[in-house]
Amino acid sequence: MKQALLVFVGGGLGSLLRFLLSKHLNTLSTSFFWGTFSVNILGCLILGLLTGYSLRNSNFPPEYSLLFATGFCGGFTTFSTFVLEKHQLLREGAWLPFLAYLGLSIATGYLFLWLGFALSNR
């Protein structure tokens, strides 16, 4: 029961922060989904930091992974919204923004995940 509560609390906090950041950042442009892009990239960085740190430190409590990695990052990142936004771009025939958003999201997401691992190994 404690594990489920940790995931629940982390997920709620991650979802709330995603909502607040997305609401603010999506006002920057009507042609690009800055909010979703930013939280997904930031989520990759946080997940990389947490995972890298936990792999390096055997005393990292597994409860922290449930709270932050599974809960917070799971609630914070928005893959389903990411896919929906790609679908919207395709329906509008916006192939170039579709390809740019897709490629940039995957490449930058991987880069920030790697950066999180690298920073956690200092």
TrEMBL record:
**According to the entry, what is the taxonomic lineage of the organism?**
Bacteria, Pseudomonadati, Bacteroidota, Flavobacteriia, Flavobacteriales
Q: How is its activity regulated?
A: Na(+) is not transported, but it plays an essential structural role and its presence is essential for fluoride channel function.
Its transmembrane ranges are 32-52, 64-83, 95-119
UniProt cross-references to Pfam families, sorted A to Z: CRCB
Catalytic activity field: fluoride(in) = fluoride(out)
What species is given as this protein's source? Aureicoccus marinus
Tell me the superkingdom of the source: Bacteria
Q: Where does Na(+) bind?
A: G74, T77
Q: Which UniProt keywords apply?
A: Cell inner membrane, Cell membrane, Ion channel, Ion transport, Membrane, Metal-binding, Sodium, Transmembrane, Transmembrane helix, Transport
Name used for this protein in its record: Fluoride-specific ion channel FluC
Family, per the entry? Belongs to the fluoride channel Fluc/FEX (TC 1.A.43) family.
